[in-house]
Write a structure and sequence with these properties.
Blueprint: E1 5-10, E2 17-20, H1 26-38, E3 42-46, H2 52-63, E4 67-72, E5 75-79, E6 93-94, H3 99-110, E7 116-119, H4 130-138, E8 142-144, E9 153-156, E10 165-167, H5 173-183, E11 189-193, H6 201-208, E12 214-217, E13 220-224, E14 233-235, H7 240-252, E15 257-264, H8 271-278, E16 282-291, E17 294-302, H9 323-331, E18 336-339, H10 352-362, E19 366-370, E20 373-377, E21 384-387, H11 392-401, E22 409-412, H12 417-420, H13 424-431, E23 435-440
Parallel strand pairs: 2-15, 3-14, 6-7, 10-11, 21-22
Antiparallel strand pairs: 1-22, 1-23, 3-5, 4-5, 7-9, 8-9, 11-13, 12-13, 15-17, 16-17, 18-20, 19-20
Helix pairs in contact: 1-2, 1-6, 3-5, 4-5, 7-9, 7-11, 9-10, 9-11
The structure holds shikimate-3-phosphate.
Shikimate-3-phosphate (S3P) binds near residues 100, 172 and 174.
C-alpha cells in the first residue's frame, strides 16, 4: 500500500492548556485482542487504540478465523475461540510497523498446529528477531529467520513445546510476553527472568482472565501450560507513552497548565514521570483509581524550569519509549543530561539515538550520541528541518520542541504517527500547539 507523504510544520512558541485524553494504550490494546481471541467467551474491550499497529493485530486474528467486531469509538468485541481454536491463515500475516504484534504472535504461533509466516514493513524488517527465535527454539519450536536474524519469520506448526527457564539478556516485555504465550502451549512451566523490570501488562491480563501466573522472584515470571482463559471486560486507559509528548510539551512551554485524563500509571511504565520530576517538572497525579486491572490517574502538568540530570539506569526500561520526548526536555533544561544503559534505543522502529541526535543538532542543540545513550547540553533550539525516519515518536517529539524553538520546525515523513497516535496533530492543536499537516499522495 502506498502511503501519503506527511509533513508537519510546527510553529514556534505557545503553551499547552486545558484537559485532553490521548488515545488508548498500545501495549494493552494488542494484548486485549490476543488474549481475548484465546479466551473462552466474548470479551468487551473499551478504550482500544485505533492506530495501525493495534489494527494489524486485529487483522492477524481475523485472518486466523476469530470474529472481532469494531473498533467503533474504541469499542471492540472479541469472540474468543479458546486456546486451541485458531485456524491456519490463508497467507502471510502482515504486522506492518508493529514489533509487538510480531514478537508476541511468534510465541503464540509456535504453539499452533499450523505453519505461519510473519512479515513487516521496511522498518520492522530490519529489527532483531533472534531474541525471540532463540528461546522459542530452546522450547522446541522451529522458527526460520533471514541470515541477518530479521523478518520474515516462518514458524513451523505442530511441534510439541517444552517449558524452559529462560534468562533474558535484555529487559524486554516483548520477549517475556512471547515466551509466556508460547508457555501457555508448553509442557510444564515456562519461566522468564529479566535483568530489569519490563512492562507487565501480559501478566496482569492473564491473571484478570483467570490464568495462573507465578512470580517466584524479582523480575521472574512463570506460567504452566494447559490452562484456560476466560473472557473479560477490558477497559484500556490512555497511553502514558502518548501522554509523554504532552508531559514534555507542557513542562517546557512557559505558561502551560494541562490535564491529561485517564492515563495508565502502571508502575512498570512511569519512568517518564520519575525522570521528569528529577529534572524539576511540576507533575501531579489526580483522582488515582483502578480500571481493568491497571492503575490510572489524571495527570496535571504545569510549566517548570527543568535542569539536566544523570538518568538512573534502572529507570531506562520503565521509560524506554519516552526517550525521544525526554531528549527534547533535556534540550530545554539547564545544564547537561546524560543517558547511559539504553542501547535498546538503537533497535526500535528506528535507531532512536542516531536519529534524535541528528535532528537535535540540525536544530542547533548540543547533543552527543553515545553507544548506549546520549549527552545533551540544554540551550536554545533553532527552527529548522528534521527527518523522522518514519518513526512516530521522533515526529511527535520534534513537534513539541517547537514550543521552545526560535523558528518553525518542519518534520518530514510523519505518516507513521498513525501507528500509535491517530489524531495527534488535531489534539496537539486543541491543547495549544500551532501545527499544520501537509499530506501529499506519492
Ligand atoms: C512493548 C514493549 C517494549 C516497547 C514497545 C511495546 C510491549 O519493547 O518498546 O513499544 O507492548 O510489550 P521491548 O520489549 O522490545 O523493550
Amino acid at each position: 500500500m502506498q502511503r501519503p507523504m506527511v509533513t508537519y510544520r510546527a510553529q514556534p512558541g505557545g503553551s499547552l492548556a486545558g484537559r485532553i485524553r490521548v488515545p488508548g494504550d498500545k501495549s494493552i490494546s494488542h494484548r486485549a485482542i490476543m488474549l481475548g481471541a484465546l479466551a473462552e467467551g466474548v470479551s468487551e474491550v473499551s478504550g482500544f487504540l485505533e492506530g495501525e499497529d493495534a489494527l494489524a493485530t486485529i487483522a492477524a486474528f481475523r485472518a486466523m478465523g476469530v470474529r472481532i467486531d469494531g473498533p467503533v469509538q474504541g469499542r471492540v468485541t472479541v469472540h474468543g475461540v479458546g486456546l486451541h481454536g485458531l485456524k491456519a491463515p490463508d497467507g502471510p500475516i502482515d504486522c506492518g510497523n508493529s514489533g509487538t504484534s510480531m514478537r508476541l504472535l511468534a510465541g503464540l504461533l509456535a504453539g499452533q498446529p499450523f505453519d505461519s509466516t510473519l512479515t513487516g514493513d521496511s522498518s520492522l524488517s530490519r529489527r532483531p528477531m533472534r531474541r525471540v527465535a532463540g528461546p522459542l527454539t530452546e522450547m522446541g519450536a522451529l522458527v526460520e529467520l533471514t541470515d541477518a536474524d530479521t523478518p520474515p519469520l516462518t514458524i513451523r506448526g505442530g511441534r510439541p513445546l517444552q517449558g524452559i527457564a529462560y534468562r533474558s539478556p535484555v529487559a524486554s516485555a516483548q520477549v517475556k510476553s512471547c515466551l509466556l504465550l508460547a508457555g501457555l502451549y508448553a509442557r510444564g512451566r515456562t519461566c522468564v527472568t529479566e535483568p530489569g523490570i519490563s512492562r507487565d501488562h501480559t501478566e496482569r491480563m492473564l491473571t484478570a482472565m483467570g490464568y495462573p501466573v507465578e512470580r517466584p522472584g524479582d523480575n521472574t515470571v512463570c506460567v504452566a501450560g494447559g490452562g484456560r482463559l476466560q473472557a473479560a471486560r477490558i477497559d484500556i486507559p490512555a497511553d502514558i507513552s502518548s501522554a509523554a509528548f504532552f508531559l514534555v510539551g507542557a513542562s517546557i512551554a512557559e505558561g502551560s497548565d494541562l490535564v491529561l485524563e485517564h492515563v495508565g500509571i502502571n508502575p512498570t511504565r512511569t519512568g517518564i514521570l520519575d525522570i521528569l520530576r528529577l529534572m524539576g517538572a511540576d507533575i501531579t497525579l489526580l483522582n488515582e483509581r483502578e480500571a481493568g486491572g491497571e492503575p490510572v490517574a489524571d495527570i496535571r502538568v504545569r510549566a517548570a524550569r527543568l535542569r539536566g540530570v544523570r538518568i538512573p539506569e534502572e529507570l531506562v526500561p520503565l521509560a524506554i519509549d519516552e526517550f525521544p520526548a525526554l531528549f527534547v526536555a533535556a534540550a530545554c533544561a539547564e545544564g547537561e543530561t546524560l543517558l547511559t544503559g539504553a542501547a535498546e534505543l538503537r533497535v526500535k522502529e528506528s535507531d532512536l539515538i542516531a536519529v534524535m541526535a541528528d535532528g537535535l543538532r540540525a536544530l542547533g542543540v548540543d547533543a552527543e550520541p553515545l553507544p548506549d545513550g546520549m549527552r545533551i547540553r540544554g540551550g536554545a533550539i533553532r527552527g529548522g528541518r528534521v527527518h523522522s525516519h518514519t518513526d512516530h515518536r521522533i515526529a511527535m517529539s520534534f513537534a513539541m520542541a517547537a514550543l521552545r524553538a526560535e523558528g518553525e520546525i518542519v518534520i518530514e515523513d510523519c505518516a507513521n504517527v498513525a501507528t500509535s497516535f491517530p489524531g495527534f496533530a488535531a489534539l496537539a492543536r486543541r491543547a495549544g500547539l500551532e501545527i499544520h499537516v501537509r499530506e501529499e499522495q506519492p
